[in-house]
Write a structure and sequence with these properties.
The structure is a single chain. The two termini are 36 Å apart. The protein has helices at 4-20, 62-79, 91-101, 127-130, 151-161, 179-185, 199-203, 210-213, 243-254, 262-275, 280-297, 326-335, 362-366, 371-382, and strands at 22-23, 51-52, 55-56, 83-85, 108-111, 135-138, 165-168, 190-194, 217-221, 232-236, 301-302, 315-319, 338-339, 341-343, 356-360. The protein has two domains: 4-30 and 279-382, Alpha-Beta Complex (Aspartate Aminotransferase, domain 1), CATH 3.90.1150; 38-275, Aspartate Aminotransferase, domain 2. Helix 2 packs parallel to helix 10, helix 3 crosses helix 9 (243-254) and helix 11 (280-297) runs parallel beside helix 14. The chain is an alpha/beta fold. 46% of the residues are buried.
Length: 384
């Protein structure tokens, strides 16, 4: 590939193809229409602003100082919290900064396991162990519903190992986390809540409220159920002594430039959510819940049922072992214009050849689709 025209052709083909598909990847979204264009693609993408607003190491930052400080203030006020940092360029970077900056007493942490839906950054093969050198223990899954935590058994585990902190939140995320129950048992324990997948639902007041229930820190992505630019965020509820360590882990520890063009788009997304799209989170959850019920009624094996609902988030998880497994089904759906990801389920032995697929409805909802339309396309493709 040796010409700009060839590159442009591929970009345009991807745009055309993606706009013709039904994207149900649970970790992706498009942005609110008010936020695209110059609010995202602008001169800030060429610039540096090392450090914090009004405390930079370069000149020429007066406008990004104004926007970044306004963005941080918006999230502090919205979540009624002491600290907000919008510099992380991804949720994984936000996690790295927090996991690096928290106290190291015995080096032990408790997180959700990968089979139970935990994120790779929380586990032995990821950031928390490989980079931050923490010894990882996993919460105990509920025997009757392994997509949820066995709270009593997990409390016993926490008591036994006395971790430096615990990490809640998942990548395969169907149910609220037991924040309040764990806080009541361990009033002095640091609780980190990774809200990467559910940040938009929390922002819209439609899911659980981690700070109100007792979490100390929220990390998140800003481009999943929160339909903003790709990036991350760190929120801290109350002033704490390790705050400066987390702050310096971002800069100079991890980042130099933090992709400044994201900042106006991130603030604009929050304002658009507050004004023109107040019901977005509710629509997302209602769509996922109705879709899960329609799939179950049609005979598909829908995971996570707790006696009331299959899901309380944007996600629907299917066990497709009887249809050839996650790889075969995801490939089949892509050939039919539907994009999902294969996903291991708690009982799987292989993440390479799992028995599940994970569906997220947040982008489809933003494009104006309802549960019936999504179901019709999925059902037709799966039966083709």
């Amino acid at each position: 590939m040796k010409s700009i025209d060839e590159i442009r052709r591929i970009v345009e083909e991807n745009e055309s193809w993606r706009n013709s598909t039904l994207n149900l990847i649970a970790a992706e979204n498009i942005m609110f229409p008010e936020v695209t264009g110059e609010l995202y693609c602008n001169d800030f993408m060429h610039r540096y602003a090392e450090g914090k607003p009004y405390q930079r190491y370069y000149n020429g930052t007066k406008f990004i100082d104004e926007l970044e400080s306004a963005c941080e203030m918006h999230f502090r006020e919205h979540f009624r919290c002491h600290y907000a940092d919008v510099r992380p360029i991804s949720g994984a970077i936000a996690n790295l900064a927090v996991f690096s900056g928290l106290p190291y007493t015995n080096g032990k942490v408790v997180t959700n396991s990968l089979p139970a839906g935990g994120h790779i950054t929380h586990n032995k093969m990821g950031t928390i162990s490989k980079v931050c050198k923490r010894e990882v223990y996993n919460f105990v899954a509920d025997g009757s519903n392994p997509f949820k935590m066995d709270v009593d058994a997990s409390i016993k585990l926490i008591r036994d190992i006395s971790p430096d902190f615990i990490v809640l939140g998942k990548s395969m995320f169907l149910h609220p986390e037991p924040v309040r129950e764990l806080r009541n048992e361990f009033p002095g324990l640091i609780i980190v809540y990774d809200a990467a997948h559910v940040f938009g639902l929390i922002y819209g007041g439609e899911f659980q409220a981690p700070f109100d229930e007792g979490a100390d820190i929220i990390t998140a992505s800003t481009h999943k159920t929160f339909p903003g630019p790709q990036g991350g965020i760190i929120l801290i509820k109350n002033e704490m002594p390790f705050e400066k360590s987390i702050d310096s882990a971002i800069f100079p520890g991890i980042l130099s430039s933090h992709h400044l063009n994201r900042i106006p788009a991130l603030l604009a997304t929050a304002i658009a959510y507050d004004t023109k799209h107040k019901d977005y989170g509710r629509k997302v959850i209602e769509t996922a819940q109705k879709l899960s019920e329609m799939l179950a009624a049609a005979g598909y094996v829908v995971c996570g049922y707790d006696g009331k609902k299959y899901t309380y988030t944007h996600q629907v998880v299917l066990d497709v072992a009887g249809m050839g497994g996650g790889v075969a089904v995801a490939n089949k759906l892509e050939k039919n214009g539907i994009i999902v990801n294969k996903n291991s389920l708690p009982w799987d032995k292989s993440v390479i050849n799992p028995s599940g697929i994970r569906i997220g409805v947040q982008e489809a909802v933003l494009r104006g689709m309802d549960a019936e339309q999504i179901f019709e396309k999925l059902d037709r493709a799966l039966k083709s």
